[in-house]
Amino acid sequence: MTATILNLPSLYEPFSTEAKWQKFWEDNQVYKADSNKNGKPYCIVIPPPNVTGSLHMGHAFESALIDVLVRYHRMQGRNTLWLPGTDHASIAVHTMLEKQLKTEGKTRYELGRDQFLERAWQWKAESEGTIVNQLRRLGVSADWSRERFTLDEGLSKAVVEAFTRLYDEGLIYRGEYLVNWCPASQSAVSDVEVENQEVNGNLWHFRYPLTDGSGSVEVATTRPETMLGDTAVAVNPNDDRYKHLIGKTVTLPILQREIPIIGDEFVDPTFGTGCVKVTPAHDLNDFDMGKRHNLPLINIMNKDGTLNANAGEFQGQDRFVARKNVVSRLEADGVLVKIEDYKHTVPYSDRGKVPIEPLLSTQWFVKIRPLADKTLEFLDQQNSPQFVPQRWTKVYRDWLVKLKDWCISRQLWWGHQIPAWYAVSETDGQITDNTPFVVAKSEAEAWEKAKSQFGENVKLEQDPDVLDTWFSSGLWPFSTLGWPEQTQDLTTYYPTTTLVTGFDIIFFWVARMTMMGGHFTGKMPFQTVYIHGLVLDEKGQKMSKTKGNGIDPLLLIDKYGTDALRYTLVKEVAGAGQDIRLEYDRKKDESPSVEASRNFANKLWNAARFVMMNLGTGHGDTESPFPASPRPPVPASSQSLELSDRWILSRYHQVIKQTSNYIDTYGLGEAAKGLYEFIWGDFCDQYIELVKSRLQPDAEPASRRVAQQTLAYVLEGILKLLHPFMPHITEEIWQSLTQQPTDSPQTLALQLYPQVDANLIDLAVEEQFELLIDTIRTIRNLRAEADVKPGVKVTANLQTESEKERQILTAGQIYIQDLAKVETLTITDKQNNQSVAAKKPQNGLKIIGLTILGIVLARLGFAVGNTIYQTAIIGTFFEMVGFLYTGWFVTQNLLNAEARQKLWKQFFQGTESQQAQEPENAIAGVIGTIQVVIPLSGVVDIEVVRAKLEKSLTKAEAEIQSLSARLSNPNFVGKARADVVQGARDALAEAEKQAEILRARLRGLGL
């Protein structure tokens, strides 16, 4: 297959490759879902980004996680749909347009609703492609033919249907309630639109005189202007300081209104003075307290943040101007006690960027308890939906328990206009809090209802407000599939399988989707909620616009490629739901972690090029080992597989099992890391190096072919395993590897994910190879430590008392010699010093010649000895010398037991032999119970090696001293956990062993 390499350049260029495959996938509708297709459905709906937005690191992270899941399940053969879309971003668009109008000296009211909406739709048409096109650059495998927008016709129909049903069921009402009010935009805002900011403020203390003249009570507040709306003072009924005052009244300063002192356990006796002013119309907690005690509601504020007639002399003043003036008046009246500096949290409107004002307002609300209680039943009785990580279940449940009625109306124009029409003819042509209304699915239906109630002359005006964006978003999982119609998509893909989202919107979006889904469909809208963490900056801080510490994902994509960024974001996840920290150099706009992923892509690319260059039969022949197959075949039978083949196949199928298990349990980061270790370590650094000699032209043909098939088989499997994480580079390589036709190629994205073949998993072989690889690694490390040049081959002696280890080392000695560049390898039994020396094979003719020469020399020696012996005088002399030496040898070595033992060791155990002596000037290392010794004479500069050994010995001795001191301390041994103490003992034993070995090596160097 050497011709194939023409399609795979020497350098991987991610940018053109990624653009090419993104276009191919979309042009060929590779990811278009078919609701009539066989296969178990797998559906994810995208958390819809704002149409106003641009890609930020949170989008990139979330989309990468979703795409891994979707691609994996698609390759598992499931009927997969990833449904994309965008949210109309009511607040963001409205605010942006009002800013534009302000620069033109206009307001939306001057422009009028129709023209304002025309501008909004025009702006949406121009800008909506920004975020969508950026998501496409991430290579997400979404079905763009099903892309939805929360204001499109189908979803708008679903919103109207949901609203009218809830209203008819008594679950939507219009009423007066305390809401978060933004004076800048003059609209109610939801909790999620409120940003709490810590500010340096003040705490004002002042006295309220008891009406009976018997004294006064002191209160403290951060908003003194609201005292104009006070309707009570509250104390804790268990507070001995004040409980005798409950039932009495005080006179409100300035306005001289008499208000009661009430007892309520909500009051914290430790806060301030233990007495609190109660302003039900301007504080949510006070509002609840007011309902419990039937207190009147006095609103002192207009919607623009100025004070109204209920504020008396301060009417018309801005709330902050009035604050100063109220304090001055209290001081003048002699009731101001003190002013303290006070740091506290103030809620700001994310829309208007001003402090929000709790304001009594007539709005539309959803009765939340019936919906929340039904959702709690699903959770408690069916554990539906399941949260990953599971700890978020309690957070979700607690939120559902505490939910209060949901204000769904917003005083905006961009969004879903509330489907309610007011009979303004009944209230002098104005919409007031008391104007009667009808709720209908259309204006025609509203006229019919209104005429039947108010007569033919009724005049109608639709509610000008729009619905909270979260109302339409709450319908997203089923409205996008066609609800309220019972479409085939809805039947097939609902409930969706998994929701992937951040923890920060569990309350605002996830809970609303489950409540809406449970109510309208009778099912939870998703089976599993996978909660991911945040992408933190290089300092471990949350990225935010306020801090200005965001990292632009597009910049990193332009520098390193999409696959590199995707893989980094997923690989960094250490456990489901954990935050990740992204390395980043702001001065250079570089990321070491993303660069490492790009290097990984290059490593894979180069490995693939090597494999494909060696898949031919050699000698210029371009025949492939699988010319007629769309994919590489399973390698030859186990009888023809060599040890390294069996090892890589076993490791490969173990990795299939490991990766699938991790993804199935949302361990996406662990899956990515496992693939990295297998591809870079086992396949590239080990197996490819092991089989290089088998790929040479003069290698044994059968062995070469098995190596080729194994390389091709494992490489193709790697591409499939890695595809969900790095789709572009894997598609590019796979197309070349499998020789796909250019006119009608298949795509890797639609191939089946690798399946585990248990018959190819051999744990014994993996155990053997782990020992061999550790040995190779140790020899390589020793070579590096001794500064042995890469091209220089060494002699190595492996010593172990384990027969099993010796067998493994002997079986794999060729791998050790090849990968560690060892010329002569000796495997020695440390106990009896029996050894086997292995030397690289020599030329066959040399071996034969040396054998013949040895025989000739032996024959010549026997001939000379025989001639000498047959000479009369000389022969007799040699017989006499031999007799005397024999007698001396027996006397000295055999008659005494100690002498016999010494002789036994000398001749049979070899402790004094040259073979057993550790050579001087050597370096050694240890793998388990195996000692590796490499003689260095003539190979390296001994003095340099000696200096390194002395440094290591100093470090080991310092560790021994430290550990010994800890273990001699009774407090440590007696109080620390047993496993910690044992760990210290084990570490001390290991350090002492290392020190002993280092000293022996230094002695070997002659020190």
From TrEMBL:
Q: Where are the transmembrane segments?
A: none
In this chain the Methionyl/Valyl/Leucyl/Isoleucyl-tRNA synthetase anticodon-binding domain maps to 645-793
Binding annotation for ATP:
545
Span of domain Valyl-tRNA synthetase tRNA-binding arm: 941-1006
Instruction: Place the motif 'KMSKS' region on the sequence.
Output: 542-546
Q: Which CDD domains match?
A: Anticodon_Ia_Val, ValRS_core
Protein's recorded name: Valine--tRNA ligase
Its taxonomic placement starts with: Bacteria, Bacillati, Cyanobacteriota, Cyanophyceae, Nostocales
The coding gene here is valS
